[in-house]
Amino acid sequence: MSLSRHIDPEELVKRFHDSHLSEGGNNLRKLMKTSHLTPYGTRYASEAEVPKYRLPQEGAPADTVYQLIRDELDLDGKPNLNLASFVGTYMEPNANQLMAENLSKNLADNDEYPAMMAIQERCISILAHLWGATKSEKAIGTATTGSSEAIHLGGLAMKRRWQEARRAKGLDTSRPNIIMGANAQVALEKFARYFDVEARILPVSEESKFRLDPKLVEENLDENTIGVFVIMGSTYTGHFEPVEEISKILDAYQERTGIDIPIHVDAASGGFVAPFTRAKAGGPKWNFELPRVKSINTSGHKYGLVYAGVGWIIWRDESYLPEYLVFELHYLGGTERSFGLNFSRPGAQIIAQYYNLIHLGFKGYSEIMENCLSNARLLSKSLEATSWYTCVSEIHKPKSGAADVITGAKQALSGTVAESSADYIAGLPVVSFRLSDSFKKEFPNVKQEYVSLLLRARQWIIPNYALPPNENQTEILRIVVRESMSLDLLDRLITDIVAVTENLIEQQDSDLSALKHKSAGHAGGATEQPTSKGIFKRLEDGIHSEPSEATIISLTGPCELAEASPVNLLQHNTGRIDCVNSDRRPATAVLPGDAYFYRYTVTLLKELNSRRD
Ligand SMILES: Cc1ncc(COP(=O)(O)O)c(C=O)c1O
């Protein structure tokens, strides 16, 4: 019997729930006794139904609600094992305390919180200085909620300056365009769409290292180009884009045509990596040392090492931020000048950023970034040493010439790696890798997405997604190595990747289709193919791809549970349920490692078995 009916989990839950409550003909709810010895014994937690989508008539005790919400949040992945994200998941206790003490401060209230405002200004000065702002110019900037807002502000400033310059000459301003690579994070394309600018998204290739191709930039420039977005740290592979090379192309273009096109550097991740590593940006300049770089953004909540909610943008001089975009507000007794998409926003993150800057200093940030890069190199070399995997990221490759994989593997195994990032190709501490060609040839049934799914069963969140359009036949697994990825944790990760791959090799002849995703994940994912002018693409969503219910529903044949109780499954945390197919062949349903899926799947399999009976 194969499962052809759709199973509605909501309906299933309701049915079991209701029948349980009326067991033996009694209304269990009415019979329930409640006390408040523990949060679970309250009327709200044990007797009353918890409304999910409407406001309860009466409230409930604080400790009960706290426990309810906390329990539900246990179903989330573990932030520290979420290797899909660049966003900080660890701060020191002192920073946590400072944040907790300042959670109620609104960054919009300039007059009320002058000390916090001064701290924001100091952060801006520190970053401007770090990124090579010159004394002869007056750098200006603002805190934002993240790089997305900062990028939108940077784009808006470029658009307005272009419009003002064209209007002054009586020229048409109806068709602005902006240039970026197909590897650009979705925030960049969003700027173009939200603010009516044509996005010229240029195809990337293996040759361009999956990043903006300077040759194509040259071909796509015209008088309506408001600027070029250049990325310091590609979201897909961590590569730094060649800012200096593109700057030179724009210099030459200006010489030929008189058209002056600015660069905005999206240093969402690289803004806190490049200045602190010995590799810097790999030699070439990338920041305000290049006159053509007019503005730079970064995410304080990525390698700035703060929790989510803070970004920064700095213009090299106030003349690059058109007056028209700056608002003077007379508010709560004071006058404030603001430039931002939001009004109210949290101030605690800015305080936390300042804490990090002062506490860590240049040396502290350098040590952390070198450490992240060193761990990322170790991971890359270990993966390549298995010969099952090939790295697409390149931070583990020596700067001079091609990577010496064998030496790298030996070094990784013997632990004799003593170099710094200066010896390697510059980039973010990101490891993007794929199954090697030889592995795919030998084990054609093993799909790369299975690796991601099986690792999820061990609680690691490692996305598998396609490279940008025109290279999207290649899928990569990506691991962001953050500060919290210690060497010990890295050992566990490498061990688990090896174990999972061995497991897949052993099961290569089994039917693994049950593991398949309904739809593959994408890093900002491609929806359209690039045209010759390179204009098109991508989904809004990020890289994460959650296992879908289809994983389970697509199991064929009735199944017998080897371990019937959800408690067993949760306790053993094995991440798998052994079943037999109708022809009695063993089958293994390997499940994602969160409790919701265990519970759901167990219920579902019970239901399947009862139907068979
Ligand atoms: C290169 C790049 N730009 C922009 C963003 C968006 O940053 P945020 O999440 O801070 O808005 C990201 C996020 O990953 C990124 O990697």
Automatic annotation (TrEMBL):
Q: Which GO terms describe its cellular component?
A: cytosol
The GO molecular function terms of this record are: glutamate decarboxylase activity; pyridoxal phosphate binding
Tell me the cofactors it needs: pyridoxal 5'-phosphate
The residues forming a coiled coil are none
What general EC class does the enzyme of this chain belong to? lyase
E.C. numbers: 4.1.1.15
- Keyword Lyase (UniProt): yes
Q: Which GO biological process annotations does it have?
A: L-glutamate catabolic process
Residues where N6-(pyridoxal phosphate)lysine is found: 302
Reactions the enzyme catalyzes: L-glutamate + H(+) = 4-aminobutanoate + CO2
Keywords on this record? Decarboxylase, Lyase, Pyridoxal phosphate
Which family does the UniProt entry place this protein in? Belongs to the group II decarboxylase family.
**Record's protein name:** Glutamate decarboxylase
Upper classification of the source organism reads:
Eukaryota, Fungi, Dikarya, Ascomycota, Pezizomycotina
